[in-house]
From TrEMBL:
Domain YbaK/aminoacyl-tRNA synthetase-associated per the UniProt entry, residue ranges: 48-169
Record field: transmembrane: none
InterPro entries per UniProt: YbaK/aa-tRNA-synt-asso_dom_sf, YbaK/aa-tRNA-synth-assoc-dom
Name the UniProt record assigns to this protein: YbaK/EbsC family protein
Entry-linked Gene3D superfamilies: YbaK/aminoacyl-tRNA synthetase-associated domain
Organism: Pseudonocardia nematodicida
Entry-linked PANTHER family: CYTOPLASMIC PROTEIN
Source species, domain of life: Bacteria
Coiled-coil segments: none
CDD domains registered for this protein in UniProt: PA2301
Length: 183
């Protein structure tokens, strides 16, 4: 069982019991998971103004080293925009100009513009999560995330946070553990 205690002082329930705290694509993806796996993902309601990692951790007593950030990155090659989602521990930084640029096979990579990230994922900025991303996107996880017994990630909205195991994240479609993803 995943320990939902990573959510600090918050009380979690199985994520599918609170679809109001999930973005549509997240709820849909959770329904597609094996019911046992989906039942191990907890969700807790938060103040949307406290969705950013540092504010969340300070307000609810969640440790930064058990929080993960999902960032959408983009780069162009031959006029084609390539997107990927990267999940790194909040205490690290995604290596956008190194590992990510090489893996996207682009000359320059950067964080996707907010409007693109929100529009393409169907999730709120500051709540984007690896669960329910566009099917064609690669999902790259840092080894620290994949090895975690439980991490806190967004719920697709700014009103909730999920507690999920790194093992479950690594089993998501298109997920790959990338050794040099974060520093």
């Amino acid at each position: 069982m995943v320990s939902w205690s990573v959510l600090g002082a918050l009380r979690a329930v199985p994520a599918l019991e609170r679809p109001d705290l999930l973005a549509g694509p997240v709820a849909a993806a959770l329904k597609e998971l094996d019911p046992d796996a989906a039942g191990r993902i907890g969700v807790a309601e938060i103040d949307p103004d406290l969705a950013d990692t540092a504010a969340f951790c300070a307000a609810y007593g969640s440790a930064p080293d058990t929080s993960a950030n999902c960032v959408v990155v983009a780069g162009k090659r031959a006029g084609e925009v390539r997107y990927a989602a990267c999940v790194v521990l909040a205490t690290t930084r995604a290596d956008v100009n190194g590992a990510i640029k090489r893996r996207l096979d682009v000359r320059k990579a950067s964080f996707a513009p907010m409007d693109d990230a929100v529009g393409l994922t169907g999730m709120a900025y500051g709540g984007i999560t690896p669960i329910g991303l566009p099917e064609a996107w690669p999902l790259w996880l840092s080894p620290g995330v994949a090895a975690s017994d439980a991490v806190v990630i967004g719920s697709g909205t700014r009103a909730g946070k999920l507690a999920v195991s790194g093992e479950l994240l690594a089993a998501l479609p298109n997920a790959e553990i990338v050794d040099d993803l974060a520093s």
